[in-house]
Write a structure and sequence with these properties.
- The chain has 28 helices and 23 strands.
- With 723 residues, it is an alpha/beta fold.
- The strands form 4 sheets. The protein has a 7-stranded parallel sheet with strand order 3-2-4-1-5-6-7, with helices on both faces. The protein has a 6-stranded mixed sheet with strand order 20-19-21-18-17-22, sandwiched between helices. A 5-stranded mixed sheet has the order 8-12-11-10-9, with helices on both faces.
Length: 723
């Protein structure tokens, strides 16, 4: 079979969730028809198990389905529960169990292009039986096998020996091996493990990889600790997402304890140690000491009223938990806290995806599985290609809204992935306060912070603004006032070449973002109109919608400009442009002023760009559905295949994109401005962190194109004035 893969281990705790996330993410770049299947899951518990959200819910199924939004139910995602397998085993009816698993697997296989199977968890008795069962399941499903080994606290020889046992067993069982991954390797042993794997299996044409141990992936959140120790949350209910990567039992005096503090530490101390509690809090708030995960107060004693009053007066105190056990018992119980990946833990999911992508040869893995790629550019692949393009030549982007929490979280993602160089506008102390309060993993030394009122460029920028706008009545005093506005200052940075692009709008209106760009940067030579598009992630494909944000009622010539600019934008982002100019009727089926405008625009656009497939006037359904097009618009080459959809006016376009976004759950990136000399893009005030990341990436790619055009400008198509 070439459309499935089976992750198999020989013991619990090997890190299957990390590998499953990485593989699903890889194949979603090629097709949206990806499914996840576990042949056997643990039986339902009468009450929630530690760290689980509901009884009987499988953690990895919940993680994969919710994170990637896979179109399958929990019930479809597994074959049998462990008690069902054991019952059938007791009656010597394992063949019946395999048949039941195969039936459910085939449903997913027929419904999609790729199925990832994850072997059992080895949490019940009978490890040898479970391993043999996994062999039998993988063989009957016809899946190639990815053997996952656990190198945690093991020597190189021991790690390799356990892998050899598994590989030899699968070979004897006539199972196909696709690759071997050793997870949780000590960093100092990674190279030796790679060498040992190559020595054993280098000639077998397997994918071979070693993923190093990452303490953050295995560390619990304060929420996990509170749940599993049944602790009372005294303060910081909203901060229970803090990650506790270190544990410190603070039994010494405060001045000595300070020297032991580490980033994201959990401090365990008796509840009557007021000096330690206050000291730890002060250290957490100080920029001279690391951010802490929280405090766990033992012995059941609570802070004195005066100390409690101190906590209650702070805007964002540490998470502080209380348990009744003594300090020694509490510290011992912490070691047993179970930390699993869950769909809400975006930081750990991101770490897992990066670890898999960094240490596994994705191209070789894809080749081994031999997935037939889909001709359609999927949203997952589109996003991946954009990020790779941005990363290849990082551009300098300015972000004026520097104290918005979403902006700072997005900045952390952008810098960690090296997608862009960033400048934040604002006061350093204000930015530092937000970063510390929300424990954002953003190193301020990795970017530039500029306070416009203290900038050495302020005078120069103000005089430049005055020169550009004095014909509109601007005075020098007015120019200084404008340059103290972060959005205008950021736009001037782009105009002067001190930044390659700007992204704003998370806390400002579209007009506040676009007006400075129109006043200062202005349109490219030969471009009569600045317009906008949205990139719409619509399930299995990406579409370009224009203009849904800028031009209220374009005439025929302007509509032709928008169509051509939108096609060029699509081309720049790897989308084959097939343009549809939309109307309430298709072809010659209706007459009237509105449809005539679209008909004229189609004629003008075809004259100016005969290289583009352009259809219009055409209704939306005929533009995107070949069967509808065959009835409503027969004889057209591009009907039913449009990738670029141009709306006749802002009222239609804006309402349509919002309706599609809200009713279908589609992701809308934009508005992306097109036609400016240098890129400036707007955010919705309801934007998410991912929206900001994607918009910055798109702006960076536009900046790359602008730079290339400045070096060797291409011949421009004739504008309306040249006709």
């Amino acid at each position: 079979m070439g459309n499935s893969l089976y992750i198999s281990t020989i013991e619990a705790g090997s890190g299957k969730a990390l590998v499953a996330l990485g593989i699903i993410n890889l194949f979603l770049r090629k097709t949206t028809k990806v499914n996840f299947f576990k042949p056997v899951i643990q039986s339902a518990h009468p009450s929630p198990a530690p760290g689980k959200s509901s009884p009987g819910q499988d953690e990895d199924i919940a993680l994969i389905l919710q994170h990637f939004g896979l179109q399958q139910t929990d019930e479809e995602s597994f074959g049998l529960r462990s008690h069902q397998i054991n019952n059938l085993r007791g009656r010597h009816q394992i063949d019946q169990a395999i048949a039941g698993i195969l039936d459910k697997f085939k449903v997913l296989e027929h419904r999609g292009d790729f199925v990832l199977c994850e072997g059992s968890d080895y949490l019940d008795e009978g490890t040898a039986f479970e391993f043999n069962l996994n062999q039998e399941i993988a063989k009957n499903l016809g899946c190639p096998i990815l053997v996952l080994g656990n190198a945690d606290h093991r020597s190189v020889d021991e790690s390799i020996r356990l892998v050899q046992i598994a590989v030899d067993a699968y070979r004897k069982h006539h199972c196909q091996i696709a690759g071997i991954v050793l997870n949780k390797a000590a960093p100092e042993q990674v190279d030796r493990l790679k060498t040992a794997l190559e020595a054993c299996y280098g000639e077998a044409d397997y994918v071979l990889a070693v993923i190093p141990y990452d303490r953050r992936l295995l560390s619990p959140r304060m929420r996990d600790i509170a749940q599993q120790l049944q602790a009372e949350v005294l303060y910081g209910h909203e901060l229970l997402g803090h990650l506790a990567t270190n544990v410190l039992v603070a039994a010494m005096q405060m001045q000595h304890a300070l020297t032991w503090l580490r980033e994201d530490s959990l401090i365990i101390t008796p509840g009557d140690r007021g000096d330690m509690i206050v000291g730890v809090l002060q250290a957490h708030l100080s920029i001279n000491y690391p951010n802490l995960a929280g405090m766990l107060l033992s012995t059941g004693l609570k802070p004195e009223p005066a100390i409690a009053k101190l906590f209650e007066g702070l805007p964002a105190p540490l998470p502080i938990l209380s348990v009744k056990t003594d300090t020694y018992t509490t510290a011992s119980q912490i070691q047993a806290v179970h930390s699993s990946l869950n769909p809400e833990d975006h930081e750990k999911i991101d770490l897992s995806l990066r670890a898999f992508e960094q240490h596994v040869d994705l191209a070789r893995l894809e080749e081994q599985v031999s997935l037939v790629q889909q001709p359609e550019l999927t949203p997952q692949l589109f996003t991946y290609q954009l990020m790779q393009q941005a990363k290849a030549d990082p551009r300098h982007i300015v972000l004026p809204e520097s104290t918005d929490l979403r902006i700072l979280k997005a900045a952390a993602v952008l810098r960690s992935r090296k997608l862009a160089t960033l400048t934040l506008l604002g006061k350093r102390e204000d930015i530092e306060r937000v970063i510390k309060r929300h424990s954002i993993q953003l190193d301020l030394e990795d970017l530039t912070i500029v306070n416009p009122s203290e900038s050495p460029h302020l005078d120069d920028y103000a005089h430049t603004f005055y020169r550009l706008r004095k014909h509109k009545g601007a005075t020098l005093d007015i120019a200084y006032d404008y340059m103290l506005d972060a959005t205008y200052y950021g736009t001037m940075m782009v105009y002067r070449g001190d930044a390659d692009g700007m992204v704003s709008g998370a806390a400002h209106t579209t007009q506040h973002t676009i007006r400075p760009a129109l006043q200062l940067i202005k349109a490219k030579p030969g471009v009569a109109l600045v317009s906008s598009v949205f990139l719409m992630y619509l399930g299995e494909h990406v579409r370009v919608y224009g203009d849904c944000a800028v031009n209220a009622n374009p005439d025929a010539a302007q509509l032709a400009d928008i169509a051509i600019a939108s096609a060029d934008t699509a081309q720049a982002f790897g989308i084959e442009p097939r343009v549809a100019l939309l109307s309430y009727s298709s072809g010659d089926s209706a007459q009237g002023e509105d449809v005539e405008k679209v008909r004229q625009a189609t004629h003008l656009a075809r004259q100016r760009r005969p290289d583009l497939p352009i259809e219009g006037p055409i209704q939306y359904d005929a533009a995107v559905d070949p069967e509808v097009a065959a009835h409503k618009f027969p004889g057209t080459a591009g009907g039913g295949q449009a990738t670029v959809l141009v709306f006749p006016d802002l009222n239609t376009g804006n309402n349509t994109y919002k309706a599609v976004q809200r009713e279908t759950g589609a992701i809308a990136i934009g508005p992306i401005l097109q036609g400016l000399k240098k890129p400036v893009n707007d955010l919705s005030r309801g934007c998410t962190v991912n929206d900001i990341v994607n918009t910055v990436v798109i702006t960076a790619i536009q900046a790359q194109a602008a730079r290339e055009a400045a070096v060797s400008p291409p011949p421009t198509a004739p504008g309306p004035a040249d006709q």
